[in-house]
């Protein structure tokens, strides 16, 4: 598992509050679920649980699932009244089926093979009620991969609770698994003298998808695509899928 979700889990929790506007993120997915009158949601790859309390406060029964115990420990400490479970999204089992399942923050990007994607969508299908809703975002390969053809270095800054953080990332294409790329990131904090103090680094292989790939895999796993939304994120061009269990 990636360092970002284990030894750097506390760094993730701090800086992603600045990278992602969780109020906007919640409102976006809440509107989708509200359109289908969903009163329960399971979030796969919930991380440190930053969406959980939003759903609870809007009377949506919420369950968060993540593979990382380090992330879940932070989530449980922050939101003790919410339900968080440790599981692999490729083969998870809920005791009670849910009306909707979401994957935010391009969580699907860590499924590098078609088999892993198929296994995940099949698991989602079996845990959804009849007519249940699946919504998730993914990095658009047709726009992102050409952007990093010659490698690309980007730096993001975040200020949280008076502390300044910096992340420097290098993206380079990896042709081993479909439209995937290597993501090497180094995390820093500015000390009291303004100097950079290295907090750690992470090496990830991330997958981007084309719309056709996603639509085909959903069809193979028993879903009907209801909507494709073009939605930019803080670092990537993305699409959001809304699909319904057949």
Question: Which key phrases capture this entry?
Answer:
7-stranded mixed sheet; N-terminal domain of TfIIb; 29% helix; 246 residues; 4-stranded antiparallel sheet; 11 strands
Structural notes for this entry:
It is a single chain. The chain has 246 residues and is an alpha/beta fold. It has 2 domains: 3-140 and 209-245, Vaccinia Virus protein VP39 (Rossmann fold, 3-Layer(aba) Sandwich), CATH 3.40.50.150; 143-207, N-terminal domain of TfIIb, CATH 2.20.25. The chain is 29% helix and 40% strand. It has 7 helices and 11 strands. The protein has helices at 9-19, 22-35, 52-57, 69-78, 114-127, 141-147, 211-220, and strands at residues 40-44, 61-66, 83-86, 98-103, 128-139, 152-160, 163-174, 179-190, 196-208, 223-232, 237-245. The strands form 2 sheets. The chain has a 7-stranded mixed β-sheet, with helices on both faces. Strands 6-7-8-9 form a 4-stranded antiparallel β-sheet. Strand 7 (163-174) and strand 8 (179-190) form a beta hairpin. The chain is globular.
CATH architecture of the largest domain: 3-Layer(aba) Sandwich
Distance between the first and last residues' Cα: 33 Å
Biggest sheet character: 7 strands, mixed
Rg measurement, Å: 18 Å
Strand content: 35-45%
Q: Would you report the number of β strands?
A: 11
Q: What's the CATH H-level homologous superfamily of the largest domain?
A: Vaccinia Virus protein VP39
Shape: globular
């Amino acid at each position: 598992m990636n360092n970002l979700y284990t030894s750097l889990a506390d760094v993730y929790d701090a800086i992603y509050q600045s990278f992602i506007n969780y109020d906007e993120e919640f409102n976006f997915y809440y509107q989708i679920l509200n359109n289908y009158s969903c009163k329960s949601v399971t979030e796969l790859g919930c991380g440190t649980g930053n969406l959980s309390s939003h759903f609870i406060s809007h009377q949506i029964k919420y369950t968060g699932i993540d593979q990382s115990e380090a992330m879940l420990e932070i989530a449980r400490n922050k939101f003790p009244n919410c339900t968080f479970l440790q599981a692999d999204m490729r083969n998870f089992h809920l005791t009670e089926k849910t009306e909707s399942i979401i994957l935010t923050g391009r969580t699907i990007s860590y499924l590098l093979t078609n088999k892993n994607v198929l296994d995940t969508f099949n698991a989602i299908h079996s845990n959804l009620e009849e007519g249940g809703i699946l919504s998730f975002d993914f990095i658009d390969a047709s726009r992102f991969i050409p952007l990093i053809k010659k490698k690309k270095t980007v730096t993001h800054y975040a200020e949280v609770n008076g502390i300044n953080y910096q992340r420097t990332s290098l993206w380079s294409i990896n042709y081993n698994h479909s439209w995937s790329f290597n993501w090497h990131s180094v995390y820093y904090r500015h000390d009291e003298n303004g100097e950079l103090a290295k907090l750690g680094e992470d090496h990830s292989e991330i997958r981007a998808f084309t719309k056709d790939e996603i639509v085909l895999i959903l069809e193979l796993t028993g879903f009907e695509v209801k909507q494709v939304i073009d939605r930019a994120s803080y670092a990537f061009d993305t699409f959001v899928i809304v699909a319904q269990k057949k």
